[in-house]
Amino acid sequence: MAGSAAVASADYDGPNHWIVEPGQTLSIIGQRTGHPWQDLCSWNRDQISDCDLIYPDQRLRLIPPEGSLATPQQQDSVGYHGQTSVQTWEQLAQCESGGDWSANTGNGFYGGVQFEQETWDSYGGGAFAIRADLASKWDQMTAAERVYRTGYGGNGPQGAGAWPVCSYEAGMR
Question: Do 26 and 37 meet the contact criterion of CB atoms below 8 Å apart?
């Protein structure tokens, strides 16, 4: 059909799923579908434990699973729902990781606001992705909000002390 922008590929399985072909990675699938590979990994965590390891014929979601937070595009249009502003989290991430929400430099801290793995797990981050650097920016903000203000799963809030230096630059103190 003239003018059609539809994906013409045997590995495309409708608007919500993708069938993995030999040699494909989440990065390749993300480039072809317009989704960050980190979101693809997070949305498929029920079948992917290592984002670098997917298999031919796997049927991957191209949308968040039912009951999860909105996609980043939807979040952009409806806004972040935590008490702390998106701008504050972005300023904190700029100081902590240079604004790289997928930061994993091998220093034991992950994601935009540099979660330790134990903190990520203790404040429910594992429901989003196995590590903070593999979660979406929005999911990282949700977990950070728990660390900063609300607590989670019996863990109380840590306040700005969770980020002893950068919380000053982000105006959190």
Answer: yes
Per-residue pLDDT band at 85 (split at 50, 70, 90): confident
| Least confident range of 46-50, 77-81, 121-125, 136-140 | 77-81
Residue 78, number of CB atoms within 10 A of its CB: 8
Class of 82-169 in CATH: mainly alpha
Q: Give domain limits for the chain.
A: 17-61, 82-169
Q: Is the separation of the CB atoms in 103 and 10 below 8 Å?
A: no
CATH H-level superfamily of 17-61: LysM domain (3.10.350.10)
pTM score of the predicted model:
0.58
